[in-house]
Write a structure and sequence with these properties.
Beta-lactamase, 14 helices, alpha+beta, globular, Lipocalin, single chain
Length: 534
Amino acid sequence: MAAARCGIGDAAGDRARLSFDSSPGNGAARRLRGVTDDRQRGSMMRRSRRLVLFSSFVAVVLAAPVAALAGHCPLPAEAAGGPGNAHTRYVEANLNPPLIQAGARPFTLVERMQAYDVPGLSVAVIHDGRLAWARGWGYRDTASCAPVTPDTAFQAASISKLVTAMLALRLVEQGRIGLDADINDALRSWHLPADPRLAPNGITLRQLLSHTSGLGVHGFVGYLPDAPLPTPAQVLDGASPSNSGAVRSVLPAGAQWTYSGGGYVLAQLALADASGTPFAELAENEILRPLGMTRSAYAQPPSAAIRADMAFGHAQGVPIPGNYHVYPELGPAGLWTSAGDLARLLIDIQGSAAGEAGHRLSPAMTRQMLTPVKGNWGLGPALYTDGPERFGHDGLNEGFQSSMVAYAGKGEGIVLMTNGGQGRQLMDEVVRAVATDYGWTDIAEPAAVEQVLPPDELARYAGRFEGGGLGTVVEARPEGLFAYTGSPNPERLAALPGRRFRVDSMGLIVRFAPDYASIDIVEGGPPIKLVRMP
C-alpha cells in the first residue's frame, strides 16, 4: 500500500543514527505492498521516475524545522489513555527506523511523535484471538489538549472500504444483491451509463470491491463542515456541489487492478438501493452494532456521541481548517471509528477465516473475501502473501492517517490511527516495535544495523551504471558509498549484509552482483537492473 514517504530526522540531532522511512512499498515495513489509500497509489512508471526526482524533494524536507508536539500542550511524561502494561511500555521506549547505526539507542514514542509532528496516536493490538490492549498517546486536538483515549474516534479514511466490502458481502449472502450481476440491476435511484466499449457486460459488485471495475476517480478530498454536500448521485456524475470528477469507465472492466474510490461510491449507492435503507443506517444495523463497534459510525457530519471524543485532523501541529473534512463518499472514506473497534472487526474476520460459525460472514464468503482477484487484492482488503497470509488496509484523509494488518490464519494483528503530520512514518515505527515485541517477523522485521565497510571493499562498488531508463554514478568516499541520480545532492547508500544497500532518502534496497557488474532494485521500487558501464 503507499506513496513515497519521507521521515524527518531526529529532533535532537545528536544521535548516531539514520532517520528515514520513505519506501513506496514499505508501509509498516513490508506489510502493505503496493496500495492502500485514496491518494497513495502510483504506477510503477511514476515510481521509477521518482527515483531520479525524489532526492531533491527529500533534501528540502530533511532541512525543514520540526514542530513541537501539540504546540502549547504539555509533553506527557508517559502516554495517557488506557491501561499500561509491559507491551505498551516496550512501545514507548523502543521505536526505530528501518536502519540504525551500531550502538544507537532506540527513540522514545514521545520523541518520534515530536519528530513526525503527530499530536495523537491510538493503537489496538490483537493477540491470541482477542483484543489484548488498546491505548492512546498524545492529544486528540491541540486546541483543548484533550488526550487520546482508547475510545477516541478518528477518521478511518480508506479503511472505510473494508467495512463497506464486508457489508456488501453480507448482503450478497442474504440474497439482497448479486456479486457477479450487473450493478445496474441493483440500482434504483441512479444508473451507470452504458459503455459498450469498456464495459460491454456491465460492471459487477465483485469488480467494484476488488478495484477491477475499470472505473476512474481514485479518491476524494472532502468538504469543510459547513460546505454544501453532494448526494451519491452527484458524486458519481461529478455534478455540483461535488468537487470530484464523474465516475466513469477509464479501463476495460475486469482487465486489471486500478484503485477506484469512485467505484466504492457506486457500491455505496447500490447497497442502499438494494436494501431500501440509507447506507449509514445499513452499516450500523448489519456490521457496526452487531460487532460492538460503539465508537463507529458512517454518519456525516459526525453525531454528538462521536464528537464527544473525536480527534481533529492536524497539519504542522495545528488543527486543519474546520478541524476535519466531511466525506459524503461514505463507502470509500466516510467512517469514523476507534482503533479498538477496528480490532473487533478484524477479530470477526479472523474467526470466520478459521472456519467458525456465527460471524458476520460465513467461512466460505470470508475465503472469497481473502482470495486475490487481481494482484494482491481481495474483495475489500489488501492481501500480503509473502509468508503467512495477512490482510489489511491503510487510510489517508486530510489530517488523518491510519493502518491495520492482521494474520488470516491466527489471531494476531494491529490497528493504528493518527491525527496529523507524518503519521505514516510514526505508524511504521510503532508497527516495527510491536512486531518485534510479539515476534511477528512477517509483518515487520527488527531494524537492520548498518555495516561499516573497509575502503578497499567500498572501491569495488564504484562506477557508472545504467538500465531501465535510469542511470547513476556510484562514488566511494571514506565515509561510505554515494550515488548520483540526477539531483545536485548524492544519495547515501547504507550498507546491509549480502552486498545490499539502502538508499537513504527513498527507502529502496539495491543489491550488487557478486562480481559488482550490476545493481538490482530488490525492494521498495520496480525490479530494475542497472549494468556497469565501461
